[in-house]
Amino acid sequence: MGELSVIKNPAALTPDFIPPRLVDREEQMSTLKMIFDDYIKSPGSFYARALLVGSTGTGKTITSLKFKEYASRSSTVRFIYVPCWTHRTMHSAVRHIGESLKMSIPRRGFSSDELLEIIYDYLKDNDMYVIIVLDDVFHIVNNSGADSLGLLIRFYDEHIGEHDYHFSLILIDRDESLLDKLDAGAKSTLGRNIIKFPPYTKDQIYEILRDRAQEALHQGTYNDEILEMISDVTGARDGDGGRGNAKQAIEILWKAALTAQQQGSRRILPEHVRVAIKNTLPVHVGELKGMDLHEKLFLLAIVEALRKKRDVPYVTFGEAEEEYIMLCERYGLRTKRSHGQLWHYLKDMEGTWRIIETRLSGKGMRGRTTLISIPYESLNVLAQELTRILDYELAVR
Ligand SMILES: Nc1ncnc2c1ncn2[C@@H]1O[C@H](COP(=O)(O)OP(=O)(O)OP(=O)(O)O)[C@@H](O)[C@H]1O
Ligand SMILES: [Mg+2]
């Protein structure tokens, strides 16, 4: 028998992979086109500048790369992409631009401003037009100061009479506070051309994962619910910063697939996803000891109900309630909590304890019902821990 394999194309799960399609970034893409189309169609006609902002994993880098693909098809304008996490000073960034143009740049003796002039003359002499992308430009601001960036943004202010603009600029940053660090002139030009990248919702993350899984994993090794489970914990939620990050979602998918494969499983199971989530997200699950006795019992009921369906990451509220009633009987507890009280516990476990996630069932089921999952911790670990606490508390009562 051949080795069981879950991952078909590992490259599709790496950060460098360029997916064939971008999910829900049409608006950002068309704004980029609007700002740069004239520059691309008649190169040098004006100085186009844009600032892409959004928190980590919102698709800024990938959108700029897709824009490069689009622009390179139709024009003679070249793209020079500068990863500022590698080129952390203005000097290093400008050197990199020169090297991308295959210029021989003197090693020392020139300031970044002087190097930029040398590069500009080279572009003029060779009748070349470029769009420079400075990705994660905050590195340069942190190391070389905002003034050096301001000078680049207002480069042509120092070239009065110049009407042939040999380079344009795309800046990428995580938030708009960059603007406040710039001089008034630079701030106002750039401020007019901000393109925002909001955090991804659960549905958007789900779509990104679905596309990615299709590229990366063998058919039949995952299902919709596995992808939903990951989007539950990575998709943006009101008032909860730090979520909506596609990078994290893809990382979780990759880790879960790898674990499944290493354990010789044909499919990714919810338990593989739980471990991957725990290893990826900095989630702090509350101390379970602090929960009410019956809240702990209800949580154990959810755990047990989930354990009965090894393949499925969700149980319905009804299934959890049934399990709770059985548990109360097993522990010899005559007074059980009402349906309404259990519902209250459920909200508490989601909001305060951060141990479960809920979602409404899709169209498959009759009516809409609440589905419950436990994505942050292995069920075996939870079952052991809860049973230990409950055995003790019930013994000393
Ligand atoms: N709309 C999308 N459709 C498909 N894949 C996406 C989309 N947005 C992001 N991704 C994928 O998610 C990952 C993160 O995206 P990207 O690197 O562009 O984020 P970023 O905003 O540049 O984050 P950072 O600020 O950390 O650099 C990449 O693997 C990218 O391919
Ligand atoms: Mg990026």
Automatic annotation (TrEMBL):
One GO BP: cell division
Protein name: ORC1-type DNA replication protein
Annotated ATP binding sites: T58, G59, K60, T61, I62, Y200, R212
UniProt domain Cdc6 C-terminal: residue ranges: 299-382
Cell cycle found in the keyword field: yes
InterPro entries: AAA_22, Cdc6_C, Cdc6_lid, ORC1/CDC6, Orc1/Cdc6_arc, P-loop_NTPase, WH-like_DNA-bd_sf, WH_DNA-bd_sf
Family designation: Belongs to the CDC6/cdc18 family.
CDD domains recorded: Cdc6_C (cd08768)
Molecular function GO terms recorded: ATP binding; ATP hydrolysis activity
Function: Involved in regulation of DNA replication.
Species of origin: Caldivirga maquilingensis (strain ATCC 700844 / DSM 13496 / JCM 10307 / IC-167)
PANTHER family, per database record: CELL DIVISION CONTROL PROTEIN 6-RELATED, ORC1-TYPE DNA REPLICATION PROTEIN 2
Keywords: ATP-binding, Cell cycle, Cell division, DNA replication, Nucleotide-binding
Annotated Pfam families: AAA_22 (PF13401), Cdc6_lid (PF22703), WHD_Cdc6 (PF09079)
